[in-house]
Amino acid sequence: MSPTARTAPAAAFVPGAAPPAPADRGTIQIVTFRLGDDLFAADVRAVERVLRYREPRPVPDVPPWISGVIEYQKRVVPVIDLRLRFELAAAAPTGEARILVFNAAAGWVAGVVDAVLDVSAHAQAQVEAAPALFRGLAAEYLHGIVRRDGGLVLVVDAERLVQATDRVLVQRVAAAGAPRG
Fold it and tell me: What is the pTM assigned to this prediction?
């Protein structure tokens, strides 16, 4: 199976979430997750799977925002600490922590989040353009912002989580974590 192939809809792996209704061209379906007190989301099509948190295997000589690697579908997948990548305060994972496996041009890339909340549909018109900076988060990582329940949900562009300059590093991390033999 190719790294960009989907094995099942992400909603099937979100505890307590009903499968989302099929999206039409004017609708975006998002997987909402929490990092600290902030809400983030990603397009459901960019999420390969939601996994229960497990400690990634450390890899030496990598930036602090790379937690290590995990094995998923018999592949070695780099794991990004999204708190550190988004310049938020570090925190130890709790029982609600999850690992989101994203489809990206570099292959599967995983991200640690504090909790996955739900899958929801929103009209494309509800997605506002991202500002240049929002609480230290570079706008280049954002697809936009959705207003929800009186708050803001930052919609992450999963493809941009690993910029072109980082792709070689992420591929090296995956190779370093691959079993020898």
Answer: 0.75
